[in-house]
Design brief:
This protein is an alpha/beta fold. Helix content is about 40%, strand content about 15%. It contains 13 helices and twelve strands. The protein has helices at about 20-35, 40-45, 50-60, 65-80, 85-90, 105-120, 140-150, 195-205, 225-240, 255-265, 280-290, 310-315, 325-345, and strands spanning about 95-100, 125-130, 155-160, 175-180, 190, 215, 250, 275, 300-305, 320-325, 350-355, 355-360. α9 links the parallel β6 and β7 (about 250). α2 crosses α4 (about 65-80).
Length: about 375
């Protein structure tokens, strides 16, 4: 995280006066120090050099004696000085910072961030994680608002997690969408085999002997939700089973939105013997509601999710789920952005990663009739 500030283009003027005594730079330095941050003027004063010299050292330019550069870098480290991203972008037209835009910091996006963070090490780039939807009721379009604020000034490229709408290619700024709104169209994308994963989840329940299976779907506007529902339907029909529309409800990928549909499924007199929830957060909520209603999992009800977030293994009972390679999805998106930055292109590339079944304790054969 960048917290320092600097004066763009400070190669002469007030900063150079630091070599003539502290008073010459005091008005500028006092104004900057009011933020509580070390400034380029502070570094110059302590090192006994001009602002121009500090600028050359921190930007790796020639013309500074080795001993002087070493002294300046020592002061930079001691004071914790960091030049501002805005100033850096104005000088060099780049910041070497990649933005990661999320609607909120929840388990899915957090796991992606872990993969992105691991992949950025050693690349020379830094990350700026930005929550673009916090506290807003009009969540649709948050990514466009965030992109317009950050692109070209604070960040050179961007990874956007689960956008709410189709994104245009942003001129000059590489964009990679994870879990894209409309699938592999527009900007570059990274997603998982949602269709195949949903088939696998449904086939697992059918193989255990379940025929009356409830489906708790995802966010209706997302391609991933559409594909997971399609995978569920295809697996049921392939097994000679007719999906019951009254057992197929939308949960929106959120526990708060899935609460009412979950109660509707589990409070029926002819409730399903198994529920496939389209993401782990909703599936874990199904476990909680089942416990509230006195249903035993998996003796009375089997539950399977999708994602394999850390909370899935820690739930009670541990949740059977379809694992997405969340860390790898994040890492691949980061590599794609860097590749576009270094090649100077924003051409879309689309990567789809495999999924796999992780069988735990929340699924079993249906209760004997």
């Amino acid at each position: 995280m960048h917290s320092g500030t600097s004066s763009p283009g400070s190669t002469a003027g007030p900063g150079d006066g630091v070599t003539n005594g502290p008073d010459a730079a005091e008005p500028f330095a006092t104004q900057e120090r009011a933020t509580g941050r070390a400034t380029i003027t502070d570094v110059a004063r302590v090192a006994g050099v001009s602002v121009a010299t500090v600028s050359k050292v921190v930007n790796g330019r020639y013309g500074v004696a080795a001993a002087t550069a070493e002294r300046v870098l020592g002061v930079v480290a001691d004071l914790g000085y960091e030049s501002s991203l805005v100033a850096r972008s104005l000088r060099r037209r780049q910041t070497n910072v990649i933005g990661v835009l999320v609607a909120e910091f929840e388990p899915f996006s957090t796991e992606l961030l872990k993969g992105i963070s691991a992949a950025v090490r050693g690349t020379g780039y830094e990350l700026l994680a930005y929550c673009g939807d916090a506290g807003r009721s009009d969540h649709v379009g948050w990514e466009r608002r965030s992109l317009s604020r950050l692109a070209g000034t604070l960040i050179d490229g961007v990874v956007i997690v689960t956008p709410t709408l189709a994104l245009p290619v942003h001129e000059g700024v590489p964009v990679v969408a994870i879990d894209p709104h409309t699938g592999p169209t527009g900007p570059a994308t990274v997603d998982s085999d949602n269709l195949g994963g949903a088939r696998t989840a449904t086939e697992h329940l059918i193989a255990l002997g379940h025929t009356r299976i409830g489906y708790l779907g995802g966010r209706a506007d997302l391609e991933s939700a559409r594909l997971r529902e399609l995978g569920f339907v295809e697996a049921m029909e392939a097994a000679g089973l007719t999906p019951d529309p009254s057992l197929m409800l939308e949960g929106g990928y959120r526990p708060d939105r899935s609460d009412r549909p979950t109660h509707d499924l589990l409070e029926r007199t002819d409730r399903p013997t198994a529920v496939f929830a389209a993401n782990d957060l909703s599936a874990i909520h199904v476990l909680q509601v089942a416990q509230e209603l006195g249903l035993r999992v998996p003796e009375d009800l089997s539950v399977i999710g999708f994602d394999d977030i850390p909370e899935a293994a820690a739930s009670s009972p541990p949740l059977t789920t379809i694992a997405q390679s969340l860390h790898e999805m994040g890492a691949e998106a980061l590599r794609m952005v860097i590749g576009m930055l270094e090649s100077g292109t924003t051409a879309g590339k689309h990567t789809r990663l495999p999924t796999r079944l992780v069988q735990r304790a929340s699924t079993a054969p249906p209760p004997a009739s």
